[in-house]
Structure formats: structure tokens, C-alpha cells
From TrEMBL:
Belongs to the YciI family. Residues 36-106 form the YCII-related domain. Coiled coil: none annotated. It holds the Pfam family YCII. It comes from the Bacteria. The lineage of its organism: Bacteria, Bacillati, Actinomycetota, Actinomycetes, Streptosporangiales. This is YciI family protein.
Length: 123
């Protein structure tokens, strides 16, 4: 199985009237429940609308994102599925529920971290 990041940009839901947001929340939670029931849900969240802090390799903290950054993530989901096509199908369900387009990206596998997690589960 492969994990995919499904995300949308900050502001992508600004077109939705406040009075419709409870329906959007209900629809999006229904998709999450469907993904949980299907065994593909890993994690997801909306991000608070705030500027990010950037921590450099020397520990210096600055406010971000950098001015050249035009878009920042407003929310995301991670699914663990057998194919890109399946990830796109989940993204389509999320897009309908959230009433905004979704971006899909494959996460890089990390066998070493997977081994660490399996070892931690044995404890």
C-alpha cells in the first residue's frame, strides 16, 4: 500500500457561506468515516489560518511562509491505498464534501521509519 497526501489550499473554502459550513463539516466527516471503515484513513486535519514559523538548521526562528510563497496548505488528509487511482477517487469524494479542489501527491516510502514503528509496537 502507498500513502497519499490529499490537500487543499488556504482560502479554497472561502467561497462557502458561513451558514453552509455545518453541512460541509457533516459531509466531510462522512467521507472520513467511510475512509476509516474502508481501512484507508491515516490522518487528516484543517490548519489554523496563521502564518507559519520557519526553524532553520541553526535553530533561528523566523515568521513565514516566505513572501514568494503564493499558496499554503489549508487542510489535508492522508490515505493508505493500493493505487494512485484509488487516491484520486478518495480525493474526488473529499472535493465534493469540502466543495473545493484537492491536490494529490504520493508520499515517499520510508522503510527505516516503518521498521522503527513496528519495533515500537512490539514494546
Amino acid at each position: 500500500m502507498t500513502q497519499y497526501l490529499i490537500s487543499f489550499n488556504d482560502g479554497a473554502m472561502d467561497h462557502i457561506p458561513d451558514e453552509d459550513m455545518p453541512d460541509v463539516g457533516k459531509a466531510s466527516h462522512a467521507v472520513v468515516q467511510e475512509a476509516v471503515n474502508a481501512g484507508v484513513w491515516v490522518f487528516g486535519a484543517g490548519l489554523e489560518r496563521q502564518r507559519a514559523s520557519v526553524v532553520a538548521t541553526d535553530g533561528m526562528v523566523t515568521d513565514g511562509p516566505y513572501p514568494e510563497t503564493k499558496e499554503v496548505i489549508g487542510g489535508f488528509s492522508v490515505v493508505d491505498v493500493a493505487s494512485r487511482e484509488e487516491a484520486l477517487a478518495w480525493a474526488a469524494k473529499i472535493a465534493v464534501a469540502c466543495r473545493c479542489a484537492q491536490e494529490v501527491r504520493e508520499l515517499m516510502p520510508d522503510p527505516e521509519t516503518d521498521a522503527m514503528l513496528r519495533q515500537a509496537d512490539r514494546r
